[in-house]
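Structure tokens please, single chain.
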Amino acid sequence: MYPKLFEIGPVPVYSYGLMLGIAFLVGSSLFSKELKRNGMDENIGVAVTFLCLIGGIVGSKFFYIIEEWNFGSDRALSTYFTFDTIFSPSGLTFYGGLAFAIILVLIYCKVKKISVLKMFDMMSPSAAIGYGIARIGCHLSGDGDYGTEVNGTFWEFIGYSYSNGTVPTAEGVLVHPTSVYETIVSVFIFYFLWKNRAKFKTPGIIFSYFLILSGIERILIEIIRLNPRIIFGLSQAQIISVVMILGGTMLLFKLLTKEKDLDLKNTKV
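Here you go.
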């Protein structure tokens, strides 16, 4: 494990922070290409990327603190808002960052009078591949995003030890490297979204697929993750994923119906 890669003077460079930075650079580049393809001002990409960066980091850290306070101990919530906790390279919850980033982008679109669904369509492939790249950082830092123990099972050959990670496993214990699994699945989700991004005329369809596919991925990976179960044997992430899948499915059905009606109208004309 390499939680800290090197130092530039007194400033440490952490593997997760570096991969998160790379994720935003790659995502921003792809998003700019989408803006250009849709005939929109590429400067929008700078503003939206900045909003996603701020919303993603603040939201994911805030959501993590709330999650730890709710499930972790009897400590008062205020005790979690310390310098070490807030600026720690570990402790970031994806869904919190996603929610805050979406809120900021919604506000931006409303102010600039830009189609929200069209904006989310253009951002979805970038979000998918960015998530996958960030998970590489989780793997390198060993920040606790790993899965259940595989010692003595069929899966032992792919097991991984995070004994030197930020949140270490016990010495000699092999676990599912779920961050690696998520990176692989994210590449496939990105490929599907990127390949089909110009196929539909109705805004929101690509975003709907992103919600559905990302939700399914997280529900499945949580089966072998160590997160606490809240209700009906589901973790917090799985509950949010269910909402994403249901919301994405309803939106997709509505938009595909609109797309079909549009195709019929164009055919008659």
